[in-house]
Specification:
The longest helix is centred in the last third of the chain and has 30 residues, at 167-196. Strands 1-2 form a two-stranded antiparallel ribbon. It has a domain at 85-151. The protein has helices at residues 2-9, 13-33, 39-47, 52-74, 89-106, 110-118, 122-140, 142-149, 159-163, 167-196; strands at residues 87-88, 153-155. The chain is 73% helix and 2% strand. Helix 3 packs across helix 5 and helix 6 (110-118) packs across helix 7 (122-140). By secondary structure, it is mostly helical. The protein has ten helices and two strands; from the N terminus they run H-H-H-H-E-H-H-H-H-E-H-H.
Length: 205
């Protein structure tokens, strides 16, 4: 969010750095308080025991989406100011799958591993080290992967543009999907907790 904020308010460099530090620290604090610094809480979603991760992520997505949508309508923060990377379908699909497997195996994603490392978790520190090693290996082997890396180019595109529907309809669709998903996982969570003998607070113990 810093980039569109900078472009909309003409912030100076010092103010940009302060805003980045405050927002970064705030995000880290929220993730830590939400339990994202514990691998067992992160992994529980894959076993249907605890969907706190999904709830926090969906709440964040909805808040950001609605905020950007209405700020764009008001002309305060045009959606064009939001930095969007070009879409490369196949490499990003494979990269997303690798990230998902890493999430399941390690119990962290890149952001939460940093938060957990700052909380003193040794496993998260190894996870962060793995990120650096993986990045180094990718850099060293990039020449062999360059063709695949640039395949499936679609340019800078948003989902509603690709589907040819108004942005407002897309926002409403995402909201309905999120609400429905949260209702569904609450039911799944209740069933799983009963089957494995967990009470309402048992998943993070």
């Amino acid at each position: 969010m810093e980039l569109p904020l900078v472009l909309s308010t003409n912030m100076g460099h010092a103010a940009q750095m302060v805003a980045a530090m405050i927002s970064g620290a705030g995000m880290g604090y929220v993730l830590q308080r939400a339990g994202f610094d514990r691998a067992n809480n992160m992994a529980s979603i894959f076993y249907g025991r605890d969907f706190r991760v999904m709830r926090v992520i969906f709440t964040t997505i909805l808040t950001s989406m609605l905020g950007l949508y209405f700020l764009d309508l008001a002309g305060v923060m045009p959606i064009g100011n939001v930095g969007l990377l070009p879409t490369f379908f196949w490499p990003q699909l494979v990269g997303g799958a690798i990230l998902g497997f890493g999430f399941i195996i390690g119990g962290y994603c890149p952001g939460t591993s940093v938060v957990s490392s700052m909380s003193g978790k040794i496993d998260a520190m190894f996870f962060v080290a793995g990120l650096f090693v993986g990045g180094l290996l990718l850099t060293m082997s990039y020449s062999a992967l360059e063709t695949f890396h640039n395949s499936g180019a679609m340019g800078r595109i948003l989902v509603h543009e690709y589907l040819g529907i108004p942005s407002g309809v897309m926002v409403l669709g995402v909201m309905l999907f999120a609400v429905g998903s949260l209702f569904a996982v609450t039911r799944i969570e209740a069933v799983v907790r009963v089957r494995v003998g967990l009470d309402g607070e048992g998943a993070d113990r």
